[in-house]
Design brief:
Blueprint: H1 12-24, H2 27-34, H3 42-50, H4 69-80, H5 85-103, H6 106-117, E1 123-126, E2 142-146, E3 149-159, E4 167-174, H7 180-183, E5 184-190, E6 195-199, E7 212-222, H8 236-272, E8 274-275, E9 278-279, H9 284-312, H10 317-346, H11 357-367, H12 374-389
Parallel strand pairs: 1-4, 2-4
Antiparallel strand pairs: 2-3, 3-7, 4-5, 6-7, 8-9
Helix pairs in contact: 1-4, 4-8, 5-6, 5-8, 8-9, 8-10, 8-11, 9-10, 10-11, 10-12
Bound molecules: flavin-adenine dinucleotide.
């Protein structure tokens, strides 16, 4: 459905490669994950690694392909047809990998990033705490330093991959540093002493990806596993801001694939299913949903591409934050609408497990919540907009003056404080 004119140059072969990988994933694996029979599908990551499809953006020195974000977004759409859990595990390489590529030292890149890209080492990211995920800087996980060892204490919840990951990027506050933003530090925690993993029961969807609660009880982490080593202490806030780009772009990219998967099932159904003596797609109530879905998916692709391009060309950080947040919000809300339309077009059978639309609906509900809720996206979007808008002197036409009463200042009342 994605027309080749909308593809960035030179990524058709990549698109086909990722499409073939997505097609190769066994149907039974998805069913077993959804039924919680598989709790962590390590073989998915291993196969992606064998195909050289993990961490596409990273430097070939560490095993990446050195591709731009615009290419990764195309790959994400292809993987998104698998739902949330598998693409999330794939994306964690991109997310945790970003932190290591940008803030890690060479020894950490060799020891952690390179095997991640080969699919030999699984990573997770632990940011959200039971007390709240949106207010990241209020995190209470602490790290007590004794010589070259830090002891982590606290809890994180909803961590995808917690049940199977070999290394978990954990944010904690180093004790003894008063300023909370300067105390925040990122640790590459290896599973072991002092780390308990609890299975998260009763997820509505996104099952089988190893989502768990992590409890740290004086879990030791050596200085070698502080992201960036000694120089990395207190850089957690920078790491967080940097990681929000892959967090949110991967959500935005995958969303298009999820919407597309449900849409195509519904579009085919509408062409075959008859009612009142005609194909149901001939009824406006159905065909307009098809039209709206297509438009939302194409608009999502276009905004995703624009946000990805802004990152690739090194656009100003605030503008990148705004565009990435817009893409995450728009693509995930569009996917939610598209999957709902698909279920409506299928009628009652859409609400059963005869078609995978009900699973996609359960999965899609999450993407407006994770990697920063869409309310948090709204906060970022308007904040970054005003920062620029009010600071810039516009060179555009003064449209406000195009009104008959524009020159009556007494009518322009703003009640501004003196
Ligand atoms: C299946 C699953 C997988 C996940 N994977 C991971 C993972 O791998 N790693 C990880 O760290 N986290 C993960 N998360 C956590 C997820 O990112 C958080 O749930 C999300 O960021 C929201 O945090 P919260 O649940 O604590 O809600 P809260 O932060 O408590 O927010 C509750 C509500 O208040 C709203 N709200 C809060 N502050 C504001 C504000 N200032 N303005 C307007 N509205 C506001 C929110 O939008 C939301 O609607 C996952 C969650 C789930 C369910």
């Amino acid at each position: 459905m994605l027309t080749d004119t909308m593809l960035p140059e030179g990524v058709r072969a990549l698109r086909d490669e990722v499409r073939a990988f997505a097609a190769s994933v066994p149907h039974q694996l998805l069913l077993d994950m959804d039924a919680d029979r598989v709790r962590f599908p390590r073989e998915f990551l291993q196969e992606a690694g064998r195909r050289h499809l993990l961490g596409l953006r990273f430097d070939p020195t560490w095993g990446g392909r050195g591709l731009p974000w615009t290419a990764e977004m195309v790959a994400l759409e292809e993987l998104g047809v698998l739902g949330t859990a598998l693409p999330c595990l794939w994306s964690l390489v991109s997310i945790v990998g970003e932190a290591i590529a940008a803030f890690g030292n060479d020894e950490q890149k060799r020891r952690v990033l390179a095997p991640m890209l080969r699919g030999e080492l699984a990573a997770a990211e632990a940011l959200t705490e039971p007390r709240g995920g949106s207010d990241f800087f209020a995190a209470t996980t602490t790290a007590r330093r004794e010589g070259d060892t830090f002891y982590l204490s606290g809890q994180k919840r909803f961590v995808v991959g917690a049940e199977g990951a070999d290394v978990i990027l954990v944010y904690g506050r180093v004790e003894g540093i008063a300023d909370p933003k300067r105390a925040m530090t990122a640790f590459l925690l290896e599973r072991g002493e002092g780390v308990e993993v609890h299975h998260v029961y009763g997820l509505m969807g996104t099952r089988g990806g190893g989502t768990g609660r992590l409890v740290f009880k004086n879990a030791p982490v050596g200085l070698a596993n502080v992201l960036g080593g000694e120089a990395g202490i207190g850089r957690g806030t920078e790491v967080f801001h940097r990681m929000m780009i892959p967090e949110r772009l991967t959500s935005a990219g995958g969303a298009v694939g999820m919407g597309r998967a449900a849409f195509e099932i519904a579009a085919r159904y509408a062409d075959r299913r008859h009612a009142f003596g005609d194909k149901i797609r001939r009824f406006e109530g159905v065909s307009f949903k098809v039209a709206e879905s297509l438009t939302l998916l194409d608009a999502s692709r276009a905004l995703n591409h624009g946000a990805a391009r802004a990152v690739d060309v090194g656009e100003e950080a605030g503008t990148v934050r705004r565009l990435v947040s817009e893409a995450k919000k728009f693509a995930t809300e569009s996917a939610w609408t598209v999957v709902n339309h698909a279920m409506q077009i299928l009628g009652g059978i859409g609400y059963t497990d005869i078609y995978p639309v009900e699973r996609l609906l359960r999965d899609t509900r999450l993407i407006t919540i994770w990697t920063g809720t869409n309310e948090i996206m709204d906060l970022v979007i308007q904040h970054e907009f005003y920062r620029h808008f009010l600071a810039e002197k516009s060179t555009a036409r003064d449209v406000e003056a195009d009104a008959a009463g524009a020159a009556l200042p007494d009518e322009k009342v703003y009640n501004e404080p003196e």
